[in-house]
Design goal:
1014 residues; alpha/beta; 9-stranded mixed beta sheet; 6-stranded mixed beta sheet; globular
């Protein structure tokens, strides 16, 4: 196929407008993070021979193939797709000829192809640049992008199946894991030609697969001994002795290994997936798979597999702004199996080769490795995996690849890494050991690490604890990662830089407030990227979300942040980009925090995750009036937990007789009708099971009988506080909390119970309660005590406040008087009216009330999705007409407020154009200009033509920054000024067109305009 024919398709689909993301053979920048993989795809003499590759946000996503004799036959095309699948990058293959195209997924082998005619292709059609960049293609074909079909997951499942099989055949789990790691790495060497024909002839060895098939243990031992010698002993070994181990393997075990080496899908026994092929699987992916493979055993020490795309991002950040990437000395004090170090080393090779315009020799790669890459880990086996992965990176892409041929030419003497650049074991690999050479003689310029996230039990003392005590460092919850952060500065040159992958709790949890203050005293934090919303998608098994921190040690003598010091705070949200293994940070998810403010209160990290400066201000203003905690300190008000059945600190338990006649509320059965406890859930007290309880203080006994609010730690299915009013006598365990009031305050208790279940409370808790925002659906009494609340008698207008309390509780009482079968429907019908009364009580402005309603309606049910399919919520859909109108009204109002504050005159005239329904990758463009009229106005129009005209106008005047213009549908949300017009361009999905977005956009526009004027 001629290039002109391909270009016709690329032009029609809009790919040529994104030329910086479109790669052709011989034109891939050496510094591109995936340069090696893209070159392999585009190699005209290679196995794939793609004609073009399109990346989205740096991740290769679409591969274009010419329809020819190779791709016209299904079997041949499937073989090409299988090779692409093994790279674990490309998601879509487009096979094109002059007049037709065929679209196929990479990871789903059985999916049907989609055929398209040339006349169907346009910039907003299926498989266009906009369709791919925006992720709209995922909505049309979700079955194409299942994570479980990706090569790393298939290989990982096969490895685990093999371990189970080998365990049943008599091996220990550790030996089975090490055996499979050894087999995987030898397969990599063979598939890549590093163990080639010359190597086998010279050393008289056979391929591993042939030896296993023949059950030739002696031949296997000979091959492995030779490899161990050539790789400086850095080859994982099961058992104490190589010969004894392999000679002891049963025929059944060898037969199972044969199935693995044939690349069968061991889990299903069928070829429902492609076969893995180590010729194409990248080095760092092998390292990552090994780390994930062992992660079940590493959870006790807090180590988790670092996903490849997160490793790529961390390396990007670590090397960002480097004056000379090739002069950096990179150290990971908890290197694990080396995915970060391997990714960094491959990046250095890419930079060096891009600078030269040609390949580095074997010797040059070795020299670069020895001077640039350093690591340590308590696990010596993990360090050997790191060494092996780095060796593979040295050998990758060399011609010839055969190790023996290289050696014969005097080119191949792999350096000894373990014991030198890499230190492993409980002493040499202990980052906190006083003899750590990287701390004794700090020469490293970059500290790059995903340290253990462990909070040890009281009975366990770690070396991090010893180091912290010796250095006077306080560690929140004795978190080992905190010790790594502080110790790292001792390993760096004065101008060094750290890039950490940390648990969010270390920085954002209330118990980490002092740590944040100490951190900002020692480091200037440049960037925090909080992945709290993608926790379940990024680390499926991790209990905590992750945050990436980039920082530099403060100069000696500088104590804490300067007044104007700012921290970039990025808060990426879950979106379909993760289906393509990329992490996208939209402009709307980028803000700045004053370092001094963060030093004072780390709650800002929670509030500014989903909120903005307006939310911070509103919460502060409401708390200044009072909090629920302040109310509970007044005479007659109490809060407590129920009884403990057992307590090891209590020597003489109390008789449960005072409770025997009471009903009992089990937290697991908690249910309310509106904001009143459902009495049907009360059961008799289990006196026979609990003849004694830890203790029953008089105050607790009184709380069991008084009118009260009872609440559990968990949230309801619609993420509301499980709180309910009741005046019935009953008891409960410490799984339930209680709030009681002085005599005569039952009505106020009912009012507070509704408040705790309201949209307003959902809003406040999402903005302030760390656990709800980032970890799990749990709320504590302390979270509730921090909620804004002012009692009627100290309200700004006590009479009006008391009237609202009466009006709302009467409304609720009227519902409760109806037959129970009607309650749920009546509550739903009256909720909006009750919420409006609550907003009046809190004296919220209409815009504040609208903001709270949209957070409750759009955001709360969308946080932390468990799968990509869970993204089909209102937050990720097209905004409604009312949302657009509310956005426009808020933007106009906010701009007017800024104008008045600055003493300006006139008004703003604005036009909003957005793509019609059905358009792929819809965007909205707001064009604003000054108007002498008294009233501002914003007019909206649904028109693909109008959007295209505005975008073309911006491109035609070179007004779209290159980094944005190439990824408009990925990272839109930009502001541009041209003559008297200001343009705002962003994706047309609800989360970018909320009232909170309008508030933020108005501030950005004002700051942008002022910056342009100055």
């Amino acid at each position: 196929m001629k290039t002109a024919a391909l270009n016709n398709w690329l032009h029609a689909w809009g790919y040529l407008q994104d030329a910086g993301n479109l790669h052709r053979a011989g034109k891939v920048p050496g510094s591109h993070p995936y340069a090696r993989e893209i070159d392999d795809l585009l190699d005209p003499n290679g196995d794939i021979r793609a004609r073009a590759v399109f990346d989205v946000d740096g991740v290769p996503t679409v591969c274009f193939l010419a329809k020819d004799s190779r791709t016209s036959k299904k079997a041949a095309l499937d073989a090409i797709r299988e090779r692409i699948w093994n790279q674990n990058l490309i998601s879509i293959v487009l096979v094109v000829d002059q007049e037709s195209a065929q679209a196929l997924p990479v990871s789903n082998r059985k999916a049907d192809a989609v055929s398209l005619g040339r006349d169907e292709a346009n910039p907003l059609s299926p498989f266009s640049s906009a369709d791919v960049q925006s992720g709209s293609v995922f909505a049309d074909h979700p079955e194409w992008f299942s994570a479980e079909n990706r090569v790393d997951q298939v290989l990982l499942r096969s490895l685990k199946v093999m371990v189970d099989v080998l365990q049943k055949q008599g091996l220990t789990k550790t030996d089975a894991q090490l055996l499979m790691a050894q087999v995987m790495f030898v397969s990599y060497l063979e598939h890549r030609g590093i163990i080639g024909d010359q190597y086998r002839i010279e050393h008289d060895v056979e391929p591993l697969s042939a030896l296993v098939a023949a059950k030739d243990a002696a031949g296997i031992i000979k091959l492995l001994r030779q490899l161990k010698k050539d790789f400086n002993g850095d080859l994982l070994e099961p058992g104490e002795r190589l010969d004894r181990f392999w000679n002891g393997l049963s025929p059944a075990s060898l037969q199972s290994l044969h199935g693995f080496l044939k690349r069968d899908d061991l889990e299903s026994g069928q070829l429902s997936f492609w076969r893995y092929d180590f010729r194409f699987i990248p080095v760092e992916l092998i390292s990552g798979i090994y780390e994930s493979f062992l992660s079940e055993d590493k959870r006790e020490v807090g180590a988790f597999y670092t996903p490849r795309h997160l490793a790529m991002l961390a390396v990007d950040l670590a090397l960002e702004d480097s004056k000379d990437v090739l002069s950096e000395r990179i150290y990971d004090g908890a290197c694990g199996s080396g995915i970060l170090l391997t990714t960094a080393f491959r990046r250095l090779i890419g930079h060096a080769q891009g600078r030269r315009g040609g390949m580095l020799t074997f010797g040059e790669r070795v020299e670069l490795l020895e001077r640039s890459i350093f690591g340590s880990d308590l696990n010596l086996s993990a360090c050997r995996v790191t060494a092996f992965s780095l060796y593979l990176s040295v050998l990758e892409g060399l011609a010839p690849a055969d190790l023996a041929t290289l050696a014969a030419e005097g080119k191949a003497k792999l350096p000894k890494l373990v014991g030198k650049n890499l230190r492993g074991g409980e002493v040499d690999g202990d980052f906190f050991d006083v003899s750590n050479p990287r701390a004794k003689r700090p020469t490293c310029t970059v500290f790059l690490s995903n340290p253990p996230w462990v909070e040890p039990p009281k009975t366990v003392s770690l070396s991090s604890d010893t180091w912290a005590r010796a250095n006077g460092v306080d560690l929140p919850r004795r978190q080992t990662a905190a010790a790594f952060v502080f110790r790292a500065s001792q390993c760096l040159v004065p101008t060094g830089k750290v890039c950490f992958i940390l648990p969010v709790s270390l920085l954002a949890a209330p118990s980490s407030k002092a740590f944040m203050r100490d951190l900002l005293m020692q480091y200037r934090v440049d960037k925090l990227i909080n992945f709290g919303d993608v926790r379940k998608l990024l680390f499926a098994s991790a209990r905590q979300p992750t945050m990436v921190m980039v920082a530099t040690p403060r100069p000696e003598g500088q104590l804490g942040p300067a007044r104007d010091e700012q921290i970039d705070y990025w808060t990426p949200k879950a979106d379909v980009s993760l289906a393509f293994s990329r992490l996208t940070v939209h402009g709307a998810d980028r803000s700045q925090i004053r370092a001094q403010s963060l030093s004072y209160s780390n709650e800002l990290l929670t509030t500014l995750f989903w909120g903005n400066a307006h939310d911070v201000a509103m919460i502060s203003q409401q708390r200044l009036k009072g909090t629920l905690g302040a109310l509970l300190k007044r005479d007659g008000w109490t809060s407590m937990k129920g009884f403990h059945v057992m307590d090891s600190s209590v020597k003489e338990p109390a008789s449960s007789e005072p409770l025997a006649a009471m009903s009992f509320l089990d937290a697991r059965s908690f249910s309310s009708v509106g904001s009143v406890l459902d009495r049907a859930v009360l059961k008799p007290f289990p006196a026979e099971d609990w003849p004694t309880v830890a203790r029953i203080p008089p105050a607790m006994l009184s709380a069991f009988q008084a009118p009260r609010i009872v609440l559990t730690d968990g949230l309801s299915t619609d993420r509301r506080v499980c709180a309910a009013y009741s005046s019935a006598p009953f008891c409960f365990t410490s799984s339930i909390g209680v709030i009681t009031a002085p005599t005569g305050q039952a009505r106020l208790l009912r009012f507070i119970a509704f408040y705790l279940q309201s949209d307003l409370a959902r809003y406040f808790l999402l903005m302030t309660a760390y656990q709800i925002a980032f970890e799990r659906e749990r709320v504590s009494l302390n979270d509730l005590k921090a909620l804004p609340f002012v009692a009627p008698d100290v309200h700004r207008d006590p009479k009006a406040a008391a009237g609202i309390v009466k009006q709302l509780t009467d409304l609720l009482a009227a519902i409760e008087a109806k037959p129970p079968i009607l309650h749920n429907d009546l509550y739903a019908a009256k909720r909006q009216e009750a919420e409006a009364l609550l907003a009046e009580y809190f004296e919220l402005s209409p815009q504040q009330h609208a903001r709270i309603q949209e957070i409750s309606a759009l955001v709360v049910d969308s946080i932390q999705p468990g799968t990509i399919s869970d993204l089909n919520t209102a937050l990720h859909r097209r905004p409604s007409e009312s949302e657009i109108q509310q956005y426009g009204a808020t933007l106009s109002s906010e701009l007017r407020a800024w104008q008045q504050a600055a003493g300006g005159t006139g008004s703003i005239e604005a036009d909003l154009a957005f793509n019609a329904a059905g358009a792929r990758g819809p965007i909205g463009v707001v064009r604003m200009k000054p108007n002498k009229a008294a009233q501002s106005r914003i007019e909206a129009a649904e028109s693909n033509k109008a959007v295209r005209a505005l975008v073309d106008e911006l491109r035609g005047n070179d007004l779209l920054p290159a980094s944005w213009g190439e990824c408009l549908y990925v990272m839109g949300d930009i502001i541009i000024r041209h003559e008297d017009n200001i343009y705002l361009v962003k994706p047309f999905i609800s989360r970018f067109w909320m009232t909170g977005s309008a508030q933020r956009d108005a501030e950005r526009i004002v700051r942008y305009a002022r910056g342009m004027e100055s």
